[in-house]
Amino acid sequence: MPTLNWTVILQFLGQVVPFTIAAETEAEAIGRAIAALRGAGFQEDTNALNAAIADDERREAISRAIADATLPPAA
Amino acid sequence: MRFKPFLLVAFVLALASGGCASKARHIATVTVVSAKGALDIAQDTEPLLVCGAASAPAAPACITADVHKKIHGNLADAYSIHKQLATAVRDWPQGQPAPATIPTYLAQITELLQRVLDSLPPGSVKDRLTALLGGK
């Protein structure tokens, strides 16, 4: 079973459906990160997962703060 | 408009392929990173569409404040689950079968991402973001 080539998939999506520059740039960065995992061993995968866990905590806190913020009263 | 659960399907197919456990963990790692990519794009791009942002489309195509909060509630939950997913894959002992929780976590993340997409105002912006994230 061949591994799906996420780099190609993400690049294809970015080319077919132009969106904001931020989203396309991020998709390219994600594609590069995934490509960098190609051929990675157990420890490299572990390092990538540790980085993901740390960033998940940061991003969860960001979204939680927005979700919990009090909206100003309607005018 | 349904978000294609490509991450879940890809992972299940990889496990069913009968490959060795170490390769399956690597495929799971790539799946984790891909899932995180989709969440990160949603979190980083959504603020650009909030009503009042310089990059936001005009109402009603922009995201209102209450929808903005709702979206981030879903994203916060998704990141929490993703952290559990990444932890499960990281702690997967070598030579052992895949943790049974992995497909469940992936399905939950897929559902939450679909809720985020469903919250977006209808229009070309929603269509483009859905396509970028692999939705349908």
Layout of secondary structure:
The complex is a heterodimer of chains A (75) and B (136).
Chain A lengths: L5 H11 L4 H16 L5 H27 L7
Chain B lengths: L5 H11 L4 H25 L19 H26 L10 H19 L4 H9 L4
Helix pairs in contact in B: 1-2, 1-4, 2-3, 2-4, 3-4
How many β-strands of chain A, per DSSP? Answer: 0
End-to-end distance of chain B: 6 Å
| Low-confidence parts of chain B | none
The chain pair forming the largest interface, with residue counts per chain, is: A-B, 43 and 48 residues
> How many strands appear in the DSSP assignment of chain B?
0
How would a textbook summarize the main sheet of chain B? none
Mean pLDDT of chain B: 83
Report on the structure:
The complex is a heterodimer of chains A (75) and B (136). By secondary structure, chain A is mainly α. Helices cover 72% and strands 0% of the residues of chain A. Chain A has 3 helices and no strands. In chain A, helix 1 (6-16) packs antiparallel against helix 2. Chain B has 136 residues and is an all-alpha fold. The termini of chain B are close together. In chain B, 46% of the residues are buried. Chain B has helices spanning 6-16, 21-45, 65-90, 101-119, 124-132. The mean pLDDT of chain B is 83. The interface between A and B is large, with 43 and 48 residues.
List the keywords.
heterodimer; A: 75 residues; 72% helix; elongated; B: 136 residues; mainly alpha
